[in-house]
Design a protein that fits this description.
Helix content of chain B: under 10%
Structural class of chain A: mainly beta
Number of helices of chain B: 0
Largest sheet of chain B: 7 strands, mixed
Radius of gyration of chain A: 13 Å
Strand content of chain B: over 45%
Helix content of chain A: under 10%
Radius of gyration of chain B: 13 Å
Distance between the termini of chain B: 37 Å
Shape of chain B: globular
Oligomer: heterodimer
Structural class of chain B: mainly beta
Largest interface: A-B, 23 and 26 residues
Number of helices of chain A: 0
Number of strands of chain B: 11
């Protein structure tokens, strides 16, 4: 989805927080923001989702700006196993995917 | 949650032929979705498969090329017709968010198609 954009790649030191930004400036009022990751072209793995409020689960935190035009996925303590392509997505009944960010966690 | 099984997991096909991909879900769902992921690219939605009605295709995808069946609430097929090397991709089946968006979408492991 060309309307959901992400930086193509990022590096993060192991043990540090990884902050992955996403721009979804044309998101509709009822569309959720979802984050998935994909490792070695397997099926996408769900991470977290939210509508307006910030969300946290055992994997990550999701920060959504007040105007909902952008969001940030935070992996609090990145490990080598977090190396993957991260997709910011949006949807209500169907999900459309953003361009993806390849995150490389460095020892 | 939903468990999605796709068959085949991979295939190598000759150009000009067709391949049908099967998707089985372990629970009844209203909407199923088919995605294509070209090499090195993000996932692109092909169509929504609705039980009891024709599939709804996204811009750039047509029924003649990607016919879809949805015979019941747990099964769907996607056919890639008259294949060319440009159809080499991973094709993924998905069950969309339930509860008006407030749950996750689930994905199968995909079918890796190579057209030679």
């Amino acid at each position: 989805d060309a309307k959901t954009t992400q930086p193509p790649s990022m590096d993060c030191a192991e043990g540090r927080a990884a902050n992955l930004p996403c721009n979804h400036s044309t998101i509709s009022g009822n569309e959720y923001v979802y984050w998935y990751r994909q490792i070695h072209s397997q099926g996408p793995q769900y991470i977290i989702h939210g509508l307006k409020n910030n969300e946290t689960n055992e994997m990550a935190s999701l920060i959504i700006t007040e105007d909902r035009k952008s969001s940030t996925l935070i992996l609090p303590h990145a490990t080598l196993r977090d190396t993957a392509v991260y997709y910011c997505s949006r949807g209500y009944q169907k999900v459309t995917f953003g361009t993806g960010t390849k995150l490389q966690v460095i020892p | 949650s939903a468990v999605i099984s796709q068959k085949p997991s991979r295939d190598i096909c000759q150009r000009g032929t067709s391949l049908t991909i099967q998707c089985q879900v372990d629970s009844q769902v209203t909407m199923m979705f088919w995605y294509r992921q070209q090499p090195g690219q993000s996932l692109t939605l092909i169509a929504t498969a609705n039980q009891g009605s024709e599939a709804t295709y996204e811009s750039g995808f047509v029924i003649d090329k990607f016919p879809i069946s949805r015979p019941n609430l747990t099964f769907s097929t996607l056919t890639v017709s008259n294949m060319s090397p440009e159809d080499s991709s991973i094709y993924l089946c998905s069950v969309g968010p339930g509860g008006f968006g407030n749950t996750e979408a689930f994905f199968g492991q995909g079918t890796r198609l190579t057209v030679v």
